[in-house]
Design brief:
Bound molecules: ligand FNR
Oligomer: single chain
Number of helices: 6
Mean pLDDT: 93
Strand content: 5-15%
CATH architecture: 3-Layer(aba) Sandwich
Shape: globular
CATH superfamily: Flavodoxin domain
Order of helices and strands: EHEHHEEEHEHEEH
Structural class: alpha/beta
Low-confidence stretches: none
């Protein structure tokens, strides 16, 4: 069963990205995944500063986030686009959790074997697509496998009903499917790994 960490790169109360994320979480759960949905506003962090890290170590909330990254195979990320790129809040989280926390800790350890699905929502006509290009490139450089499929919701200021659910059924389903697909891919990779380990151990036994 896939374990997935889900969060939005927006801390705003009425965030459109938080709303679309809920649909993706529904899809992932439908696929049988265990999903941990968090709000970054519950993990208040200073801006990354090397001197602060040197003097005080990695902040407690960054350690908690890192634990969550380590405990999950998948990342469901709904990322607002700020000035054609990702939000500072999201990038700051990535910078803090990327830091090694003890001598045994390899750099970027918490991104190892992670698969991510990305989505975005914006009042603009591109739905935040340009921000996802930067986010995808950054995540792939730190060893996260990012699904080629992503969803962007344009004109997000008009996209939701009073309950915060996406009004257009096709859009809502495509986001649910993104969550479903992420969970499915992780399960499939898991099965491949198990088969591979079984084959290797059988070969070892034969030797
Ligand atoms: C924006 N916004 C924005 N939208 C967009 O489509 N492309 C962009 O480059 C930007 N740039 C940008 C910069 C800054 C500093 C802000 C505050 C906003 C608008 C943005 O998409 C909008 O505020 C969304 O509502 C943010 O996402 P949440 O908070 O609704 O999830």
């Amino acid at each position: 069963m896939a374990n997935i960490l889900a969060f939005s790169g927006s801390t705003r109360e009425g965030s459109f990205n938080k709303k679309i994320l809920k649909s993706a979480v529904t899809g992932a759960k439908d696929s049988g995944a265990e999903v941990t949905l968090i709000e970054l506003s519950d993990f208040d962090l200073p801006l990354y500063d090397g001197d602060l890290e040197h003097l005080q170590g990695v902040p407690k909330n960054a350690l908690k986030l890192k634990e969550l990254f380590l405990a999950n195979d998948g990342l469901l990320l709904a990322l607002p686009e700020y000035n054609s790129s990702m939000s500072g809040v999201f990038k700051n989280v990535i910078d803090w959790v990327s830091r090694p926390t003890d001598d045994e800790d390899a750099p970027l350890s918490c991104f190892k074997n992670k698969t991510a699905a990305l989505m975005s929502a914006s009042p603009g006509h591109l739905g935040g697509a340009r921000g996802l290009v930067h986010a995808k490139s950054m995540l792939e450089n730190i060893h996260v496998q990012v699904l080629a499929k992503h969803v962007c919701v344009a004109q997000a200021d008009k996209a939701f009903n009073d309950e915060g659910v996406i009004k257009d059924e096709t859009t809502r389903l495509s986001i649910e499917q993104l969550g479903f697909y992420l969970a499915h891919i992780i399960d499939e990779d898991d099965d491949k790994d198990k088969t591979h380990h079984r084959e290797v151990s059988m070969t070892i036994q034969r030797c």
